[in-house]
Amino acid sequence: MAHLNGSLHANNFLKDLGFRWRPMTRGNYDQISELAYLTDQDSDELLRFALRRGYGKTRIIGSEPILSRLLSFEIMKVCPVCILNFHSSDGYMLQGPPIYWQLAPIKTCEIHNCALVTIPAPVKSRCKFDVAGRVRDHRCSLAVDASPTKRKASEYEHYIISRLCGDQRNAPTWLDDLDLAVIAKTCEHLGPIAFGGSGPSEMQCAEPANLQWRHEARLFLAIRDNPRSLKSVLHDIRQRPKRGGEGFRREFGRFAVWVGTLVDRQGVTSLLKCVRDFIEEAYPVATGQVVLGRRCKQRKLHSVMSVSHQYGIDHIRVRRLFNTIREQNGLQRLPPPDQNNCVSAKLYGPWLARYAESWNEKQAGAVLGMKWYRLDELVEADLLQVFFELPGMARRFERGAVVQLTERVFENSVRVDHPSKEQFLISELPNRCACTTVDIILAALDRKLPFVGRHPKKPGLSALIARQRDVLDALEGPPLEGLTQAEAFKRWRINTSTMACLVREGIIEVTHVKHPRNRRPMKIVSFEEVDRFESSFLTLGCIAAQTGTHPLRVLHDLRRYKVQPISLPTGVSCIYVRSEAEHYLDAYAKL
How far is residue 4's CA from residue 502's CA, in Å, rounded to a whole number? Predict the structure, then answer.
């Protein structure tokens, strides 16, 4: 309009019409409406080029709020190709440069796909908003840059320009509900954190400004689809190795501080909800704790310290516990802790409550009144179940199981302050009855002991009192299936030396068993072995008993009939082969 009016500068044109430059550029609605009436222009179209004040430190371009620091007029950027096309042959600007060129995220001209160049400082004293004057001062140098660096505009730049221009060329996205200033701030803070990392390869071969621009563009592409994509980016950042400690503020820096200022702002509900959900899912937030203005309804994650505080377990033991479970790749259908040493509160909560109430081996042994290493006997007998057992960690027993075992043993017990001569403590009975402590406990549980007493001054199972004969009766096994050695040599009328010699020579096989009542180790001759021996051999004593003759007379007669005993060492009784000795018996029967 200044060019059509013949004015050299735009501010001169406004002065000629009686308007002031600063109120016009700041969007004074009355002046813009009057200018539109005088020039027959659309007031809304003129208002789009104004920089109106918004909330806080924002300026409104069209209908979009923009952070003031993202707009720079001290250092101006223009497209050299567009600027040359905007000028007429006599040097006047036919069209003003778009204001979105001055936004920090805009680095490219989307029309010519080239990088924007910076206009040098003004030659004359001009207002910083006088873009046309600064372009005119350096038109010659801009003409030299008519072949700028080729660069394709990013989707992030396309999105910003389309929002400022009010067109609908972009597909609808959840970011449309957020102010452009909020989107720009999110990309500015999260871009370097998400894609900068710790020394990526491009940081060593690119300028810092170009690197920042690339990170912001990549972040916009990553989060534009839906809120879940933003949450996914936040989770990826959370899973990275930590340098300066853990925590939302430590890991996300300025982004965490800035998000905290959005709690009372309107129009950022979707962003705040996404960040809140992420914080509750990725950090050990307690139930009822306020997260960005909203109370957490239920804890979702446990850390080492939160487990220590909530369940009263020493934090060093909790850390060792989590490390061991991770090394074992899980425990009892529970997934291992993540790399931040956090676990799911829903999955681990009931198990941690049981773990906190459980006893270690020494505690359980003290309650049961026995040494901790003797608990293995109870576990092997299936009297006590191990609740937790992992390499390098102490075994744990559930408190209820330990107390229940004691109550079952003493269910029908009688208090005994002074045991009688027939009553003994459970610590004395194993030596007297040749049994184990577990055998006595099992007998008490099976109600095989008629009398069960309890000493009031003894802890746990050590207070058990029983009679020795009751224990022997309860633990008595089935009768022996054979003859003892004493019974065998009495039956065969031989002495102990002969019996030992027969066993030593392998003529008689013995079986090692325990006595059914006192459980002492002993040797027996099975009934099958007795029948085999008697069917094959006859002893001198048995022949004498059958004939009713003195053994010496029988020995003399057998020698006369030329019946010789089997070969045995001297000094033992004579043993004859039955088939040979029967000739003598037949002859004796005929007499």
Answer: 140
Burial category of 150 from C-beta neighbours within 10 Å (exposed 0-12, middle 13-18, buried 19 and up): exposed
Residue 578, Cα to own-chain centre: how many angstroms? 79
Tokens of 22: 């600063």
**How many whole angstroms separate alpha carbon 216 and alpha carbon 191?**
5
β strands within 299-411, DSSP E: 301-302, 343-344, 359-360, 396-397
Token pair 């029983």: residue: 466
Q: Tokens at residue 287, please?
A: 């139930």
Is residue 125 helix, strand or coil? coil
What is the tens place of the pLDDT at every residue in 536-583? 999 989 988 888 888 888 888 888 888 888 988 888 889 999 888 887
Q: In whole angstroms, what is the distance from residue 210 CA to residue 218 CA? A: 12
Q: Supply 109's token pair.
A: 């001209």
Pull the structure tokens for residue 66: 């923009």
In terms of C-beta density within 10 A (0-12 exposed, 13-18 middle, 19 or more buried), how is residue 428 classed?
Answer: middle
The CA–CA distances, whole Å, from 156 to 151, 162, 170, 388 equal 14, 10, 11, 54
Phi-psi region at 335: left, alpha or beta (left = phi > 0; alpha = psi -120 to 50):
beta
How much is the pTM? 0.69
Q: Which two tokens stand for residue 8?
A: 């050299």
